[in-house]
Amino acid sequence: MELIEQFIVNEGKVINEQVLKVDSFLNHAIHPKLMKEIGNEFAERFKNDHSTKILTLESSGIAPALMTALALNCELVFARKRKSITMTEDLFTTTVHSYTKNTDNEISVSRNLLKPSDRVLIIDDFLANGQAALGLIDLVHQAGASVTGLGIVIEKSFQPGRQILLDKGYKIESLARISSLSNKKVTFANQLEE
Ligand code: G4P
Ligand code: NA
Ligand code: NA
User: What residues does the Phosphoribosyltransferase domain cover (predicted)?
Assistant: First the structure.
């Protein structure tokens, strides 16, 4: 998707060879029109998969997931990292390992929000090592529901997440695929293929 690549080139900051900062439109400030286009693009790519629900992870997954849910006319649920005081129901819970922070974090969804009949499209802002995506997939499977695919706004293709998910047979659609952040520069995977 060219628009997200333009935002990355114009406003992204390469922090180091592993990390891209996109606080001006995705991770801190949020650009509404960009999110709307992202939602429309995911809806187009997943329109034939009959998803009943979008699942994402707070906080940065929520904006693109909401616009996708609107475009696909389906429900939206986000997994929580901290349990709210009102989350007194039974929960589906799983542990997500963060390689960057070397921590294990629990994420949860109330059991009444995921049903065995649900066909769940997972949306997230970044795909790096794939641990957050695997955690969300685990929550869906705990509910007895199925995963229709994964929609990722920015994929760091030089990290292992994409291959891990492909090896498990999931459909992945990433709107921007970054093949390298070397030399303080963003290189997209489609630039290499050309
Ligand atoms: P890891 O797999 O590489 O170890 O990353 P980890 O799951 O620990 O992700 C930590 C957070 O960093 C996640 O957001 C993830 O989306 C984000 N992230 C990973 N790589 C990048 C990157 O290159 N750039 C940016 N901007 N973010 C990255 P989070 O902690 O869940 O925060 P949020 O959803 O509240 O924003
Ligand atoms: Na994030
Ligand atoms: Na995220």
Answer: 31-157
Q: Does the C-beta of 21 come closer than 6 Å to ligand 1?
A: yes
- Atom 28 of ligand 1 has which residue's CA nearest to it? 126
CA distances from 22 to 28, 92, 186 (A): 8, 31, 12
Token pair listed for 44: 């187009």
Q: Is the pLDDT of residue 13 over 90?
A: yes
Please tell me the CATH code under which domain 1-190 is placed: 3.40.50.2020
* Per-chain residues with Cβ under 5 A from ion ligand 2: 60, 125
Would you say the C-alpha torsion 11, 135, 41, 169 has a positive or negative sign? positive
Once rounded to an integer, what is the mean pLDDT over residues 132-143? Answer: 98
Ligand 1 in contact with 63 (CB < 6 A)?
A: no
Per-residue three-class SS string for 70-98: HHHCCEEEEEECCCCCCCCCCEEEEEEEE
pLDDT tens readout for residues 98-117 = 998 999 999 999 999 999 99
- The domain spans of the chain are 1-190
pLDDT in tens, 22-77: 999 999 999 999 999 999 999 999 999 999 999 999 999 999 999 999 999 999 99
**Strands ordered across the beta sheet of 187-188:** 75-79, 53-57, 119-127, 146-156, 172-180, 187-188
Mutate to test the pocket of ligand 1, among 96, 100, 184 (most ligand atoms within 8 A of CB): 100
